[in-house]
Structures are given as structure tokens and as C-alpha cells.
DNA sequence: TTGCTAATGCGAGTGATTTGCAATAGGTGT
DNA sequence: ACACCTATTGCAAATCACTCGCATTAGCAA
């Protein structure tokens, strides 16, 4: 399993180990990613980065996120038809997203263990419940 | 539950009942959708429709699919980063998709009943396991 | 056959991301 | 401190999957 990066320094070290360079955009982006556990789109992250360094281009954010994902530092997930959202790989989890109000529930992997077992025994299929959110209705929207 | 359309005629009748018109593009598209149980993108469907009627535009396919989805005749699902895939609503099911080779496994809803129960009791969340595929590895790719 | 308006073709627009390319800047060796 | 190599960046343009505006066409009810 790649990307044993639980701190900003670990992540930068990982970048260096793979022949990458520690640039200011990388440093700022990683600091922002490590500063909260939120799920943010590339554009939102670009906004936060640009608050510190206005010249950093959105495409640089995309390229950095791509590289960090290849290194296993970040992952992205899809919550619906909008843009992908990125978060640190150290906190992998499943996602329940309400189709009506967009509410996000972070779900421990253990919630999928029954499905994982059944998928494996019945189809030999190994599920990865992180990439696409499980859509549905939150309690508020389901009862409303 | 809308869209009790198990035959082409039912679907056309449903269109009429909602003030829609039975156009040749609609008729051809529905015939193609009913002719197989496959999962096809709008562009693939357009190709098949255009084999019969070359003048039917891709945007017409999108608009027809949108309308048919509103009527509950078809549904779309996402299998990865590519285009959405459409199929008849009469055969709703979950999807397991291999991230490596793209293999698709159609999964009966019952496979998600355990997860549905747990999601409901622990978060009051009602899952809808149809829209996004569950990604992972098929048996061939997992062992390879 | 007429008239109303849903539906279509076509082109342009949008949102999210990707790519080509010349300029810039990390980092390594001296 | 300096030179050099090449990873990285800014910027613009391209791409992919749709989505929309609009003038024209065509279902279908009267």
C-alpha cells in the first residue's frame, strides 16, 4: 500500500522519493489538505490556495492532485453529478450522500463488510466502496 | 411508482398520456432500448438509432432519454469516469464494475438489503444502490 | 386541412477537467 | 555561488459529456 503519509512532511518526503520536487504550490496545497478533514473540489482547493498565492493556476492544482493521488496521499470521490471531491487518503471511508439535499455522511468501512463478504462469495468480486458515494435519502428528506 | 412500461407500446402510451408525441426518433430509440438488456451510453444509442435514421441528432437522443427517464421508462447509471449508461427501468439492479477491466456484474437488489438495513438503523439513511456502480475488482483481476 | 405546440436539427455554450508548449524554478553536482 | 538538467508551472486551447436557444418541422386534435 503506497502513501504512508500521515503528516505534511511525510507527504513531501514521498514526493521527493519519487523524483518529484517540493514546489510552493505543492506545499501550500498539502498544508490546506492537512488543515481540515473536509471534502473539497479542485476549484475550491484552488480558491484556498490562491488566497495565499494568487498566481497558482487551477490546472496546477489538478496536476498536483493527480500526482498526490498517484502517490497515495489523497483520494477523490464522486458525490453526484458535480465535480469530484478530494480528501486525504489517511481517512478513507465510504460516503452516503442525500440526492435531495446533498447531506454527506462519512461511513466507516465496517458498514460495507457484509456487502463485501457477499460480493466476494457470490461473484468473486472485491468491492471498493470509496470512489462513488452511495446515494439515497437522509432521514430528514426521507420523512419530509 | 411511475413508468409501468414493460413493452414498447406501454412506453409510447405513457408518452402520449403525458402530452408527449410519438415521434420516429422516440419510436426507434425505444425499439432499440427494448431490443436488448445492455447498458449503453447516449452516444452508442445515437449510433444505433442513426443506423436506421441518420438525421437524428445526438441532442435529440439526450432529450428523449431525459424525457423517458422522467416518465420512469429508462434509468441511467455511472460505471466510472466515462459517459452515463442507460437501460430500461424494468430491470433495475445494482452494478459491480471492475476498475481494471470494466467488467460489469448486474447485482440483484437483495444483495444490498443488509447494507440498506444497517444504513437505516444507524443513520436513518435510505440507500438507492442503482445510480452509481459499486467499483472494485472482478475475480480475474483480483487474483491476476 | 388547419392550428397549436411538442419535438427536432443545428450550432453554440457550459462545466470539469486535460493537454501542448514555452518559460520558470527545484535540486544536484561542482 | 554557479551551471545544468528536467520537473513543474502559467496560460491558452482542446476535450468530453452534455445542455440550451432558436428557428423550423411535424404530431395530432378539432
Account of the 3D structure:
Chain A is 43% helix and 17% strand. Chain A has 144 residues and is an alpha+beta fold. In chain A, helix 2 (24-35) packs across helix 3 (42-52) and helix 3 crosses helix 4 (58-70). The N and C termini of chain A lie far apart (43 Å). The A-B interface holds A 78, 96, 98-99, 105, 107, 111-112, 114-115, 118-119, 122-129, 131-139, 142 and B 78, 96, 98-99, 105, 107, 111-112, 114-115, 118-119, 122-129, 131-139, 142. Chain A binds a DNA duplex (30 and 30 nucleotides) through helix 4.
Short description:
2 copies of one chain form a homodimer. Chain A has 144 residues and is of the alpha+beta class.
How is the biggest beta sheet of chain A arranged? Answer: 3 strands, antiparallel
> Outline of chain A, from the CA principal axes?
globular
The interface involving the most residues is between: A-B, 30 and 30 residues
Structural class of chain A: alpha+beta
Distance between the termini of chain A: 43 Å
List unreliable stretches of 5+ residues of chain A.
none
Reading the helices and strands of chain A in chain order gives: HHEHHEEEEHEEH
Count of helical regions of chain A: 6
Helix content class of chain A: 40-55%
Oligomer: homodimer
Strand order across the biggest sheet of chain A?
A: 1-3-2
Radius of gyration of chain A: 17 Å
**Number of extended strands of chain A:** 7
Q: Round the mean pLDDT of chain A to the nearest integer and report it.
A: 95
Amino acid at each position: 500500500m503506497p502513501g504512508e503519509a500521515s503528516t505534511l512532511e511525510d507527504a513531501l518526503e514521498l514526493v521527493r522519493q519519487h523524483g518529484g520536487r517540493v514546489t510552493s504550490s505543492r506545499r501550500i496545497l498539502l498544508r490546506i489538505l492537512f488543515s481540515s478533514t473536509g471534502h473539497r473540489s479542485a476549484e475550491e482547493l484552488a480558491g484556498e490556495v490562491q488566497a495565499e498565492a494568487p498566481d497558482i493556476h487551477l490546472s496546477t492544482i489538478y496536476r498536483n492532485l493527480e500526482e498526490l493521488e498517484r502517490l497515495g496521499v489523497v483520494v477523490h470521490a464522486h458525490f453526484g453529478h458535480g465535480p469530484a471531491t478530494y480528501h486525504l487518503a489517511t481517512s478513507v471511508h465510504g460516503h452516503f450522500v442525500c440526492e435531495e439535499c446533498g447531506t454527506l455522511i462519512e461511513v466507516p468501512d465496517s458498514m460495507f463488510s457484509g456487502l463485501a463478504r457477499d460480493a466476494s462469495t457470490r461473484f468473486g468480486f472485491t468491492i471498493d466502496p470509496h470512489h462513488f458515494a452511495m446515494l439515497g435519502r437522509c432521514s430528514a428528506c426521507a420523512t419530509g
